[in-house]
Amino acid sequence: MNLGYALAYRLGITPWERARPGFRAQLGTYLDHEETGGGAPGRALDVGCGTGDHSIELAGRGWQVTGVDGVATAVHRAKTKAAAEGVDVSFLVGDVTTLGPAAGSGFRFVLDVGCFHGLTASQRHDYAREISAVTDPGASLLMFAFGPGHRRPLPRGVARAELERTFPDWTLDADDPADTAGMPRPLRNSNPRWFHLTRR
């Protein structure tokens, strides 16, 4: 998967970075709710952060943000963007299935926009283990993912039942359709969802 993303960033073919207004509005609403329900912003982890747009938004809201991505080109661009915006974000080149101590710990919020749904079955279990290890009880995981299906070259997606099996230490408390207005037809047909999980 990283090889494909690395090639896409090198060629400048990154349609997932062009977020539509409806998507941005939904994400903003979720972040507003997270901040209202959980008190002051704390430590946040943006997995599969790409070139850092969501990490930068979180930092602008007052979160202490770490962004992790497996593509060095994307992380380099993220650092450049954050510097231009004047926000402090720790960006790391890393594997979300083996985060290790470099990523830190004690995260209260994890954001995943399109990372988990592209992983293999075994990678998904490793991801869940790592996310559980770096978060505190009561932490939130907000995930944007396509529904299940075989729609190459799109990721294979994920179903609610799989999330519940893969994250035994978490409660899946929201499963909402994503706003697809303005998205290309293949993305509209992928049944994109917003999942919200809380670590027990």
Describe what this molecule looks like in 3D.
This protein is α/β, with parallel strands linked by helices and 200 residues long. The chain has a single domain (2-199), classed as 3-Layer(aba) Sandwich (Rossmann fold). Helices cover 38% and strands 24% of the residues. The protein is built from seven helices and seven strands; from the N terminus they run ααβαβαββαβαβαβ. The chain has a seven-stranded mixed β-sheet, with helices on both faces. The longest helix has 18 residues, at 21-38. The radius of gyration is 16 Å and the shape is globular. The mean pLDDT is 88.
Shape: globular
Radius of gyration: 16 Å
Order of strands across the biggest sheet? 3-2-1-4-5-7-6
| Helix proportion range | 25-40%
The total beta strand count reads 7
Second CATH tier, the architecture: 3-Layer(aba) Sandwich
What would you give as the CATH superfamily? Vaccinia Virus protein VP39
Order of helices and strands: HHEHEHEEHEHEHE
Mean pLDDT: 88
State the CATH class. Alpha Beta
Reported for the largest beta sheet, the result is:
7 strands, mixed
GO molecular function: methyltransferase activity
Keywords: Methyltransferase, S-adenosyl-L-methionine, Transferase
InterPro entries: Methyltransf_25, SAM-dependent_MTases_sf
Organism: Rhodococcus spelaei
Based on the model shown, name its key terms.
single chain, 200 residues, alpha/beta, Rossmann fold, 7-stranded mixed β-sheet, 7 helices, 24% strand
Brief overview, please?
This protein has 200 residues and is an alpha/beta fold. The chain has 7 helices and 7 strands, in the order ααβαβαββαβαβαβ.
